[in-house]
Amino acid sequence: MNDLTTAQLQRQNILNNRYALQAAEQHLQLGGVVFQGQTVFTKQQVTALFEVSDATVERYISNHGEELKGNGYQLLKGKNLKEFKDLVDVSLINEGNKAPLLGVFSFRAVLNLAMLLTESERAKAVRSRLLDIVMDVLAERTGGHTKYINQRDEHYLIASFQEESYRKQFTDALDHFVVENQWKYVRFTNLIYQCIFRENAAEYRQVLKLAAKDSIRDTMYSEVLTLIASLETGLAHELEKEFKRLGRKLSMQEGAALFGQFESHPLFKPFILDARTKMASRDLEFRDALHHKLEAYIQSVPEADFDRFLGETSKSLEDRLSDPATLAVFKRLKDR
Question: Which structural domain range is residue 102 located in?
Fold first, then answer.
């Protein structure tokens, strides 16, 4: 884990994880005032909490204003300010009772500031405890198994089922339209992997520290599986079309050249960008796995993804397979 004071992406990942924030609010007991349904802190409270000066807090607000505002720092004015002043002791407002504006920090913004402050030992202690809480929440909600966290997504099973069907079309096309070669399945599968995430199967396995018995596709996110399926069925179609045009099977080189033309179609660009971004960002956050060839695509993981993999709609694969509604969907797909 990078130093949070200099790593904005890691800071935002923590702040986007509402399950970690709920646990942190419960365990850290930082105080604050309940205002309009949420806990907020005045600058006076923040300076006391972190044992720093007013000028220090102002400097961080000035230097990191957009980040702090994005995580709940706000200026109260007008009706909201009057309501807040009526609620709290005037001693908590060091701007003076007549100030037309008052800056307040949400709990999330206070944690944001704690991850920025380098001058405060108290902030350093909060950072350390916060990292422990994040890891504890992840372990608790996944049962300690993040290797297959992708399978907790409610869309995973359908994507996996459909990809298997398209995979059969793909391997059949290789059988019928490409000359015999013991490496052709590995070769064309790796071409698809390299097209999407710039890694072949062996490299992907190494990044995720997978054992020889582990299935690569069992660890892939639903969006990645769907894109693989699109490339597989599309390539199968192109191989058949070229086979008919030539009146013979394609050589390995001809098949690879055909795929090179196929993958360069502009249609795939936004989907490949999306898959690279999701895979690189999620794997770094949830699996502590860095895809070096995709570093440029890493972004903070959005709040919706924490709900998707840790929230109420996420379930283990075993739980989903025992759900009658899920089994009914599979039966309909199979009977189509």
Answer: 8-142
Contacts of 205 (CB under 8 A, 6+ apart): 214, 216
Q: For the chain, how many structural domains are there in total?
A: 2
- 89 and 187 in a single domain? The answer is no
The structure's pTM equals 0.86
- Pairwise CA distance, residues 116 & 335, whole Å: 56
Q: Could you read off the pLDDT tens digit of each residue along the chain, which spans 336 residues? A: 568 989 999 999 999 999 999 999 999 999 999 999 999 999 999 999 999 999 999 999 999 999 999 999 999 999 998 888 888 776 667 655 566 888 999 999 999 999 999 999 999 999 999 999 999 999 998 887 899 999 999 899 889 988 999 999 999 999 999 999 999 999 999 999 999 999 999 999 999 999 999 999 999 999 999 999 999 999 999 999 999 999 999 999 999 999 999 999 999 999 999 999 999 999 999 999 999 999 999 999 999 999 999 987 776 656 655 555 555 554 554 454
Q: How far is CA 16 from CA 13, 60, 68, 222, in A?
A: 5, 20, 13, 21
Residue from 318, 326, 323 nearest 145 by CA = 318
157 and 212 inside one domain = yes
Two structure tokens written together for 215: 């299935």
User: Residue 206: how many CA atoms within 13 Å on its side-chain side?
Assistant: 8
DSSP string, 42-67: EHHHHHHHHT--HHHHHHHHHHSHHH
Same domain, 191 and 326: yes
Question: What is the per-residue DSSP string for 271-321?
Answer: HHHHHHHHHHHHHHHHH----GGGGGG--PPPHHHHHHHHSTT---HHHHH
Residues 160 and 138 in one domain: no
Tell whether 3 is covered by a domain: no
Asked if 52 and 119 touch (Cβ cutoff 8 Å), the reply is yes
